[in-house]
Design brief:
This protein is α/β, with parallel strands linked by helices and about 375 residues long. It is built from 13 helices and 13 strands. A seven-stranded mixed sheet has the order 2-8-7-6-5-3-4, sandwiched between helices. It has a four-stranded antiparallel sheet with strand order 9-10-13-12. Helix 6 links the parallel strand 3 and strand 4. The longest helix is centred in the last third of the chain and has 24 residues. It is globular. The chain starts with 6 loop residues before the first helix and ends in a 7-residue tail after the last helix. The structure holds pyridoxal-5'-phosphate (PLP). The site of pyridoxal-5'-phosphate has 13 residues, from helix 5.
């Protein structure tokens, strides 16, 4: 398998830890363990009984039951826990696909959902999300791309980095098209609980029996560092995916599983304060972008906590983002990480004070270094 380098992760390795203001991340800002305990009532004694034993390859049954109850069909057998949803998507792809399989996928898309398919040797058909269409997928094109040879369709709604989503009618058409040809539908729902401008869609499993729903603690619940993600789907479809773990992580740490199970039982309480702050930031961002029209355009995200902004007179935002990080201490993610160099990913779920400061610095950096443009 030939792996492609991942520009997003290269960028994060370089800038995430040392840049004081984060305007680039795709999830709400993380909780400390003390905050987690305060919000959820977790007690240290819950860990005292822990034996540092091996865990189940599929994930501890209590954690799987919590995931199945909240996001699945209530059956823990239809859940596989993984080390983050990046791991979960990897397992779904390598477990269910072979070289030569035809796969339909959105472009841009989070790298594991896209370039991994190329590494596996799949025939990849992309459905472009275009700025000119406010990044909305053209459903007719998408459905036309799904044919008798399609083994899997891969989507992520709300979408990273554009925040676009689809309607329930479009979701039903998509399920129907997959069903007609017997294709798996990989539905990355990382931002499911961060839907705000659009209607929250039902997760497509168990409604569609060949759906594989991907989920994570990283984006909506402020716990990226716990590294817990999952696949929800028919046990028989998860079985070949699980086997890959025998060569990689084997299982998720039982310490982590205890904390994650408690977190899921209190997922709403964890999500609410961060979502509220993100929505306040979003309103502020909207007003701020109004003052930046000569430099920046955007399409309003419907969910997730990122906007994929576009700079009128910058063809490749990477040098701009580098100088922004290095001279102003503000991290954006250049659109080169998503095959769209005129754009940049702007995350709006950081702490309000630093978020506003970050926008102020971004504004001054733009004024100092961007050519001006009269909005037409
Ligand atoms: C759409 C999407 N899926 C999956 C992931 C992976 O997240 P994690 O492995 O932290 O669960 C990300 C991270 O940015 C993402 O944006």
């Amino acid at each position: 398998m030939q792996l492609t380098r991942v520009p997003l992760e290269d960028w994060m390795r370089h800038y995430y830890f040392d840049t004081p203001i984060d305007l680039g991340s795709s999830g709400v800002y993380p909780y400390s363990f003390a905050e987690f305990k305060r919000i959820t009532g977790f007690r240290d004694e819950a860990l005292d009984a822990l034996v540092f034993d091996d865990s189940d390859t599929m994930g501890a049954v209590g954690l799987r039951a919590a995931i199945a109850d909240r996001w699945g069909d209530g059956d823990p057998d239809n859940v596989m826990v993984a080390n983050g949803s990046n791991d979960a998507s990897f397992l779904a792809m390598v477990g269910l696909l072979e070289a030569g399989d035809e796969v339909v996928v959105l472009d841009p898309i989070y790298h594991t959902l896209g370039s991994l398919l190329v590494s596996i040797g799949c025939q990849v058909k992309t459905v472009p999300l275009l700025w000119e269409n406010q990044f909305a997928p053209n459903m007719d094109d998408m459905l036309a791309a799904i044919g008798p040879r399609t083994r899997m369709v891969v989507v992520n709604f709300p979408h990273n980095p554009t925040g676009v989503s689809i309607s329930r009618t479009q979701q039903l058409r998509l399920i129907d098209a997959c069903d007609k040809v017997g294709a798996y539908l990989v539905w990355d729902g990382a931002f499911h609980d961060l839907t705000f401008e659009a209607h929250q869609l039902p997760l497509p499993f168990p409604e569609y029996e060949r759906a594989i729903v991907i989920g994570t603690m990283s984006k909506a619940y402020g716990m990226p560092g716990i590294r817990v993600g999952w696949c929800i789907g028919q046990a028989a479809h998860l079985a070949p995916c699980m086997l890959w773990k025998d060569y990689t992580s084997l299982y998720v740490s039982p310490w982590v599983e205890i904390v994650a199970q408690h977190a899921i039982a209190h997922a709403d309480a964890l999500c609410a304060p961060r979502k509220k702050e993100a929505l306040e930031n979003f309103a502020y961002l909207e007003r701020w972008l109004d003052t930046q029209r000569e430099h920046i355009a955007w399409t309003k995200p419907q969910g997730g906590v990122t906007a994929f902004i576009r700079f009128h007179h910058i063809d490749n935002t990477e040098p701009f983002c580098r100088s922004l990080a290095e001279t102003c201490g503000v991290m954006l993610v250049p659109g080169t990480a998503f095959n769209n160099p005129k754009h940049a990913r702007l995350g709006f779920a950081g702490p309000s004070k630093s978020f506003r400061k970050g926008l102020e610095l971004l504004g001054s950096h733009c004024a100092a270094s961007c050519p001006t443009h009269s909005p037409g």
